[in-house]
Amino acid sequence: MASNLLEMKNITKRFGQVKAVDNVSLSIEAGQVLSLCGENGSGKSTLMKVLSAVYPHGTFDGEILFGGEPLVAHGVRDTEQKGIAIIHQELALVKQMTVLENIFLGVEWARLGVMDYDNMYLRCQRMLAQVKLNIDPNTRVGELGLGQQQLVEIAKALNKQVRLLILDEPTASLTESETAILLDIVDDLRNHDIACIYISHKLNEVKAISDVICVIRDGRHIATRPAAGLSEEALITMMVGRELTELYPRQPHAIGEEILRVEGLTAWHPVNRHIRRVNNAAFSLHKGEILGIAGLVGSGRTELVQCLFGSYPGRWEGSIILNGAPVRFANCRQAMRRGIAMVPEDRKKDGIVPVMSVGSNITLAALRQFTGGFGMVDEAGEQAAVRDAIERLKVKTSSPELAIGRLSGGNQQKAILAKCLLLNPDILILDEPTRGIDIGAKQEIYLLINQLVRQGIAVIVVSSELPEVLGISDRVLAMHQGSIKADLINRGLTQEQVMEAALRSDSHV
């Protein structure tokens, strides 16, 4: 019987009176892939921060054995020296530095006090080849796409003689082809006896890559099962504690009169100004309608909705007609005052102020509602609105005063939605609304979207997940290379039909 590389025994981590992890145990063998599954806020990331010593020895109860010896780590450097590396969903690369400089950051090679760049360069080439990344080590990281940056992070971990690699939502921002490359690399780690703990809400990936699946819920261990023979339905039931009989709940709703019309919208790249990110886009939107926008990464979906919301950083032209009158927003504040709200694609960068409280983030865009004479804030009214929003969106937080940066990604997303709804918008734009969110929280967001359109609110949903677009939309815009290739009524639409429409050379609207 193979001995375990890692054993975590009876781990409990408290934040005040709250147990984020409650008596959880897990183990993994060398060369094994274990997927850690659970809803947002279930304790997955907290457990991995305990393992990687983000929360050091002495701040939690329980015991960790690594390679058969007690792991007593007082910081991340200690665990890295033992061969444990964690790659977070938000990458930790220095984008102004080269790939080589990032891979050797903190572990530089030197001879007689002088950097040994020649040998570092050769070593870097070997690490990049191992992750199937054919680039010059002197390339600046900021020039790479997200998928390539993810592979650089893995190469950086492999350079440190990693024995256990932890991947936290590694494919949340990757294309299908980039995801396939990453999964091949994880599969290849088995051949080098490198163990991997894989955290993802994409259950098809979990099933495809895992040897073992461990589920935790509300901080407690629910089950550990072999991946072979475990159905997605059974896995979902373990994760959420109930059956999700219909992931995309389609509910009848009336579609009203036109509220928005866009004509001839063209947007140019902010830096390479000869490149069109959106090319002569035209479409309409009606009250009580869910309009999905589908297309490959880079098709211009995000740039299109940024123009509508006044947040596009480059030059654009075209006409936007809102409630029958032409408008042009210089910034998002103007858009919000005219009844448009948006949940941005990058919630960390554009959606929250991490150091501010959950409550302050929720009311940040609507403070005028709670400001009376002399600029005084109605604190009681604001707190009541925060409580109602947290209850309505089911935001899991120990307190409205907790810094929002300490919430899970899914609960941050719910708080951003709460902020938008506090504006009482006529149009709600959702750009990748369920990225990095567990399946239970996804269904809650879909149910909320159904509630909003029944109230007459128009919703635009941008998503890289075609099943999501088809599952919730009344109509679908198929985009490719900046152009709207098709405007399709969603009556039994298939993924193949949408992709065929997006990729064909002729435009048909």
From TrEMBL:
It comes from the Bacteria. Keywords: ATP-binding, Cell inner membrane, Cell membrane, Membrane, Nucleotide-binding, Repeat, Sugar transport, Translocase, Transport. Residues 6-243, 260-506 form the ABC transporter domain. Gene3D superfamilies: P-loop containing nucleotide triphosphate hydrolases. One of its GO terms (molecular function) is ATP binding. It comes from Acerihabitans arboris. Its main location: membrane. GO terms for cellular component: plasma membrane. PANTHER family: CARBOHYDRATE TRANSPORT ATP-BINDING PROTEIN MG119-RELATED, XYLOSE IMPORT ATP-BINDING PROTEIN XYLG. It holds the Pfam family ABC_tran. The keyword Aminoacyl-tRNA synthetase does not apply. This is Xylose ABC transporter ATP-binding protein. It is a peripheral membrane protein. It is found in: Cell inner membrane.
